[in-house]
What does this fold into?
Amino acid sequence: MTIEDGDLGGLLGRLPVCAPDTRRAARLREQCRERLVKRAGGRRADSTSSPRKWKTVESMSLALATAYLAAVVLVALRLVGF
Amino acid sequence: MDRESERSLVGRLRAGDPAAFDVVFEAYHRRLHAFLARLTRRSSWAEDLVEETWLRLVAHAERLDADTRLGPWLFTVARNLHTSAWRARRLDAVLASGGLFDGRTMAAPSASPFETAVADQLQERIERALQSLTAPDREVLLLVGVEGFTPAEAAGICGISAEALRQRLSRARGRLLRRLGEAQHGPGGTK
It folds into this structure.
């Protein structure tokens, strides 16, 4: 049977679909679903809590305040003779 | 899949809806696997690439544009992954003597045993001729001929202009027909 150019499109369109591994496909689908939900959950949690930038500022402020307080205490101790 | 349902699916994917992922997976998993199996000529490597394609979708879901066309998006990723893998592993050289989809194919339904036998022979000839072509030839034939993308969509997937795709497609069709003729009559044979 000779195949002409005009037949080619139809013949290619009718080629059978190669079957994927169904067990691997099921595992993959589950893995993707979990990741999708996890990522969306992570985004929601981020949006309801303080942004990371402010968390950094908060922890830096706390460290500075602690250092300042320690310095004040040390100066006060020196003043009273320790 | 009409445009409105596709937009809605994209919106749900961006919001992380697993049911929307199921719909997209059902619609495209077999097609992506078949495309990659024919492109790589090896089902097991196609499985790896199709897996990576879906993981990329999940990783990029939140950043999808509202009007993303999911089919072209997925096939673009799959095609790019194949190109990277092909460059890395030099698939064509390694697989020059390789088998056809590890023997796992699905027969198309036919009306009678005779028609089935003829169709099987014809399909096998086409599959073999397709496999003998280069990866760029195979990809345009698969995208337009097998997957039914428009030339404009296929050009977008391949990252080339519509005119370049038209020329590549025309040359690929010519080469496929020549290979089919050679398979029937032998190289340089007459009809």
